[in-house]
Design goal:
The protein has two domains: 147 residues, ornithine cyclodeaminase, domain 1 (2-Layer Sandwich); 191 residues, 3-Layer(aba) Sandwich (Rossmann fold), CATH 3.40.50.720. Helix 3 crosses helix 12 and helix 4 crosses helix 12. It is of the alpha/beta class. The protein starts with a helix and ends in an 11-residue tail after the last strand. The protein is 39% helix and 22% strand.
């Protein structure tokens, strides 16, 4: 861990202590933070620092257990629960896919001291930003330091947009490409990204050409028929790959060659990535062994495992999302909202039960 990160952690811990203590005395009832309010209090630099500090600490598996997915009747429901390692809050993110293909996202945070519900957050935007913040941390540790990068983003939707902005904050992006099969979408993405960040971004019509000329490739979309959108044959030596779109067994985003060509695969949840994602299951079915090159994001950040070992290595970050990411970013939004006053007091009080 760097000295600057240690100083940031100490300062942040003192600020968190003060805000939580104030909230305990001021708010008898839980508060609510809307999707619009989370956007107003969100900051990329703070989110990435928060995620790096989270993974730099001791992350016991019990603090962030595997997700739970319930399935049946053509629907599914997912729960991700975690205890924040800073000893203040704990909670869960809940969401499901209904038969009408719609969903809502909710994060509930509880006080570790009293056990009381502190905040409910409309988490519509949190999944994309926490995923991008974690990816930015991984890339920061995988790319060559002080290198001007050419990046290609495959996907112009929410995940592609948040990843582009997070990576532009954490890394030195010299120029970027974006591919989407919809011409208008990629052109709008390129224009808005350039205007917002000052990084030249080009909308491209050939994803293979973009990938072949890039140092950093982000796969942030899936095709409608689950055909992989990124092929290992396109990757040149030294490429850093981020893949975040395949989180369930039936989903595909990268082909088996990507897995085979990677010298190191960093995962936020190694067992879930290995056993529950379609990309890795597909690679296993193709006879590709990857267990010996799979390491955790926590070990990468803490320096107990090496990421890139040579300039020519193809290295990959594969994400399914982790509960501790959701809780860390939700906690940051809650604290920012407390500081700015951008929240709503809820008109009810939950009954409290003492356990023996």
């Amino acid at each position: 861990m760097t000295e600057s990160l240690r100083r940031a952690e100490t300062s942040s811990a003192e600020n968190i202590d003060a805000l939580i203590s104030e909230a305990r005395g001021k708010h008898a009832n839980p508060v609510f933070i809307s999707a619009e309010q989370t956007e107003r209090v969100f900051d990329w630099g703070a989110a990435i620092d928060c995620m790096e500090a989270t993974y730099a600490g001791e992350l016991d598996d019990a603090l962030s257990p595997p997700r739970v997915v319930a399935r049946g009747n053509d629907v599914w429901f997912r729960a991700l629960a975690a205890v924040s390692p800073n000893r203040h809050l704990m909670g869960a993110k809940l969401f499901g896919l209904g038969r009408g293909r719609g969903t809502t996202y909710l994060v509930a945070l509880f006080d570790q001291e009293s056990g009381e519900l502190r905040v409910l957050i409309d988490a519509k935007h949190l999944t994309a930003v926490r995923t991008a913040a974690a990816s930015a941390v991984a890339v920061k540790y995988l790319v060559q330091p002080e290198t001007d990068l050419v990046a290609t983003i495959l996907g112009s939707g929410t995940e592609g947009q948040t990843h582009a902005r997070a990576l532009a904050t954490a890394c030195r992006i010299d120029r970027a490409n974006v591919y989407s099969p919809t011409v208008a979408n990629r052109e709008v993405f390129a224009k808005s990204f350039t205007e917002e960040t000052g990084v030249p971004c080009q909308a491209i019509s050939d994803p293979a050409e973009g990938v072949r000329n890039s140092d950093l490739v982000v796969a942030a979309a899936r095709s409608f028929d689950e055909t992989p959108i990124l092929l290992g044959a396109w990757l040149r030596p030294g490429t850093t790959v981020v893949s975040i779109g395949s989180t369930l067994p039936e989903q595909r985003e990268i082909d088996p060659d990507c897995v085979e060509f990677a010298s190191v695969i960093v995962a936020d949840m190694p067992e879930e990535v290995s056993d529950q994602t379609g990309d890795m299951l597909n690679a296993s079915e193709a006879g590709i062994r990857f267990e010996n090159k799979l390491i955790s994001l926590s070990d990468l950040v803490r320096g107990t495992e090496l990421g890139r070992r040579s300039d020519d290595d193809i290295v990959m970050y594969k994400s399914v999302g982790a509960a501790v990411q959701d809780i860390a970013i939700a906690e940051l939004c809650y604290l920012n909202a407390l500081e700015s006053g951008d929240y709503a007091e809820m008109p009810f009080e939950l009954s409290k039960k003492f356990m023996t």
